[in-house]
Design goal:
Elements: H1 2-11, H2 17-32, H3 37-71, H4 74-85
Length: 109
């Protein structure tokens, strides 16, 4: 008889309609609702990823702005043309030195 009393003591709050409705509402809001906790959690992680991506692109924009600023000067433009396109003045000669580890070797050899 003592075992029945202890079980009844734990089940007593679940006999109240308000508690049952509250539990049902909590389960509904956590799992089934369109604004459930799981959906909010997914959206928050997506927001964090997008904010990190935004910061990355902002850093890239700042780096590109600095590069554009360098190219607007005469010296910067000349340096870029010499390094990237191997341009030279009429009275100059250019020697390109490639190191062995920077060369792409054929797989056949």
């Amino acid at each position: 008889m003592g075992a029945l009393k202890s079980k009844g003591k734990y089940l007593k709050p679940f006999k109240n309609w308000f508690v049952l409705i509250l539990i049902g509402f909590a389960i509904w809001m956590l799992f089934f609702d369109a604004n459930s906790w799981f959906i909010h959690n997914e959206l928050n992680t997506e927001i964090d990823e997008l904010e990190n991506e935004k910061e990355y692109y902002q850093r890239e924009i700042d780096k590109d702005k600095k590069g554009i600023k360098k190219l607007k000067t005469e010296d910067g433009l000349e340096k870029f043309a010499r390094e990237e396109y191997y341009m030279k003045r009429d009275n100059e000669e250019i020697y390109i030195i490639e190191y062995e580890d920077s060369l792409k070797l054929k797989q056949d050899e």
